[in-house]
Write a structure and sequence with these properties.
Helices cover 53% and strands 15% of the residues. This is ATP-binding cassette domain-containing protein.
């Protein structure tokens, strides 16, 4: 009887794992959707999409409850089966020990055997009751596996980065998945200290991915990236990132005061924070705010305009006086006058600049322009030389955008 109980509970546990994995997977997607809907609530209301959002939420909730209800029904059947099995087994054991197989056992020994057998069956029943929790634990562990198995950065290792050095990409390629088309492929170029290099091209052709490779947010699948002659993999990453002022596409401020946002993880004086705000063209806006640098921002920079959010991110990037500035569409929301003032402020710092921009007026002062398509560099040269090239991609982009 114990063997039968164990076999039944094993089958049930396996079924519970499947049902709970399905329910948890749908619940995670539902949570992701709800988070996105809350963050995009103004856009949802503007598009009058409330009925669509509610219908989708209702559908997802029903999908979560379906396997959950089946799991609860199975658990109820198992509980009833377990109770009945224990009762029947105890009665059977008592009958057998009282008669056919009693042998020389006295009454005390019979009671002891029945009590021991009852305890064993109770333990098996409890094991069956844990099958649901085991299923949930297995499902959660499976979801966490990519995170738990990912390679962690060793912050204590790596050679120190030289104060200034050239940046070299040598046939670097990268894809986000094993079977995915490479986001960047066979990329080779060099950036000298103090040089201003701009990347242009249609959206979705690898410019942002290429910028993520430099601070080590992603590692190239093939080829190499060196800074100051040292392989990126051999460099102390925190040291490299401290020397990089990075503003990635759609980066958002975190909740806290403006001073805390500009300071980031560093330690700034108020005068240094004001200097960074001035370089980013944000000083006048901050002085008009009720509490100046002590004005509290909500999560995501709610209450700031798109241009103010971008300049706040720029101020944080410039506050640590970086040797390398990496900007991904960091001034796309600024008007032309503010953008020119910010570009002039950054240019006066004499730092190495690698900039992605769709607004071509921002790259006309670059030392070099890299034109990308399909994850490759198809043109490279100064803005003037590329404009003069017949049938050139950059020339066509300038003609369509600037006239």
């Amino acid at each position: 009887m114990v063997v039968v109980d164990l076999a039944v509970f094993a089958v049930v546990a396996f079924r519970q794992v499947i049902l709970n994995a399905r329910a948890l997977s749908i619940r995670y997607r539902l949570n992701d959707d709800v988070y996105q809907w809350i963050r995009a609530l103004p856009k949802v209301r503007t598009a009058a999409a409330e009925p669509f959002v509610f219908d989708r939420w209702l559908t997802r909730t029903g999908q979560v409850q379906s396997p959950r209800s089946r799991s609860d029904r199975i658990q109820g059947v198992v509980s009833a089966f377990g109770t009945a099995a224990v009762t029947a087994s105890v009665l059977l054991a008592y009958y057998l020990l009282s008669g056919p197989i009693r042998g020389d056992l006295d009454d005390a020994e019979v009671v002891s055997w029945v009590a021991a057998y009852t305890g064993l069956l109770a333990a098996v029943l409890q094991l069956g009751g844990l099958s649901e929790n085991i299923g949930i634990m297995v499902s959660v562990k499976r979801r966490l596996n990519p995170l738990l198995e990912s390679k962690t950065e060793d912050y204590a290792q790596g050679a120190p980065l030289p104060p200034r050095g050239d940046i070299c990409f040598d046939r670097a390629s990268f894809s986000y998945g094993v079977d995915d088309v490479p986001a960047v492929q066979d990329i080779s170029f060099r950036v000298s200290p103090g040089e201003f290099v701009a990347m242009v091209g249609p959206s979705g052709y690898g410019k942002s991915t290429l910028l993520r490779l430099l601070p080590g947010f992603e590692s190239p699948a093939s080829g190499s990236i060196t800074v100051g002659g040292q392989e990126l993999a051999d460099i102390n990453m925190p040291g490299l990132r401290r020397q990089c002022g990075v503003v990635l596409q759609d980066a958002l401020p975190f909740a806290g005061t403006i001073f805390d946002n500009i300071q980031g993880s560093g330690h700034l004086t108020w005068s240094q924070a004001w200097a960074a705000a001035r370089a980013a063209g944000l000083e006048e806006d901050i002085r008009r705010m009720p509490m100046g640098m002590s004005t509290v921002l909500l999560d995501g920079g709610a209450g700031l305009s798109g241009g103010q959010r971008q300049r706040r991110m720029l101020a944080q990037a410039l506050a640590k006086q970086p040797a390398i500035v990496v900007l991904d569409e960091a001034t796309s929301a600024l008007d032309n006058r503010t953008q020119e003032r910010v570009s002039a402020s950054i240019g006066a710092l004499h730092v190495t600049r690698i900039v992605v921009a769709h607004r071509l007026s921002t790259v006309m002062t670059a030392d070099r322009v890299l034109v990308m398509r399909d994850g490759r560099i198809i043109e490279e040269g100064s803005p003037d030389s590329l404009i003069q090239a017949e049938h050139g991609e950059f020339r066509d982009l300038v003609r369509h955008q600037l006239g």
